[in-house]
């Protein structure tokens, strides 16, 4: 079902990560109109070498198919960045990507 | 963990186990933040009665935003931060996101948000020094993003 695209790049000791997650992010209003239940990502976290490098609690006001960027220090080329999101229905998706 | 095992596990995990990686889930620890209708109430629910200094935090977004369904917002700050929270006053509820930072984390987040009408985006940075800093931007929205 759901999926995400990740890009992770090392630049001057800082790793830049770009993520595009696939999710409808239905707000309560939108869901009412469609006659379905609201569902949106409620938590996103990223880890690198077992350390949490990104941790966001989110609301329904992120855009559909949310895209986000963040930076962190303390990783090297070839390390894996692992990103997990959880939505309102407790679905979780985890994807990982090597740092370039 | 080898990949095959991992994939199998993740399939089952969808049903049973919630994400265990999360450092802090503010939806669980501060549930009032997410139902607060105004920015003021949301900040109060998240941090309590605080005074913020209006400097040190930059919030950037295009204005007018052509598509209210996906407005790219960038929050930047050099402050050594514990948490960063993002609010807006255009939607039914105020909270958009709360980030928790690990030690040495960099406050440089970009995300796309939805806004129903023209409004103001406010970012609050909780510094490791115990002080609060804020930054905000007014955004004109040409076409609302919550109508679907």
Provide an overview of this structure:
The complex is a heterodimer of chains A (100) and B (148). Chain A is mainly beta and 100 residues long. Chain A has one domain: Immunoglobulins (Immunoglobulin-like), CATH 2.60.40.10. Chain A is 7% helix and 54% strand. Chain A is elongated and about 50 Å long. Chain B has one domain: Immunoglobulin-like (Sandwich). Chain B is 21% helix and 34% strand. Chain B has helices spanning 3-15, 26-29, 31-35, 39-47; strands at 52-53, 57-60, 71-77, 81-88, 95-100, 107-113, 119-127, 132-139. Chain B has a 5-stranded mixed beta sheet with strand order 1-8-7-4-5. The longest helix of chain B has 13 residues, at 3-15. The radius of gyration of chain B is 17 Å and the shape is globular. Residues 10-22 of chain B have low confidence and may be disordered. The chains are: A mainly beta (100), B alpha+beta (148). The interface between A and B is large, with 43 and 45 residues.
Summarize the structure.
Chain A has 100 residues and is mainly beta.
Tags for this entry?
heterodimer; A: 100 residues; mainly beta; Immunoglobulin-like; four-stranded antiparallel sheet; three-stranded antiparallel sheet; 7 strands; 7% helix; elongated; B: 148 residues; alpha+beta; five-stranded mixed sheet; globular
Unreliable parts of chain B: 10-22
Question: Helix-strand pattern of chain B, N to C?
Answer: HHHHEEEEEEEE
The main sheet of chain B comes to: 5 strands, mixed
Q: Beta-sheet strand percentage of chain B? A: 25-35%
Q: What share of residues of chain B is helical?
A: 10-25%
Strand content of chain A: over 45%
Query: So what's the oligomer here?
Result: heterodimer
Instruction: Label the structural class of chain A.
Output: mainly beta
Assign the CATH superfamily of chain B: SoxY domain
CATH class of chain A: Mainly Beta
Compute the separation of the termini of chain A in Å.
27 Å
Identify the strand order in the major beta sheet of chain B: 1-8-7-4-5
* Cα gyration radius of chain A (Å): 15 Å
Q: Which CATH architecture of chain A would you pick?
A: Sandwich
Mean pLDDT of chain B, rounded to whole units? 76
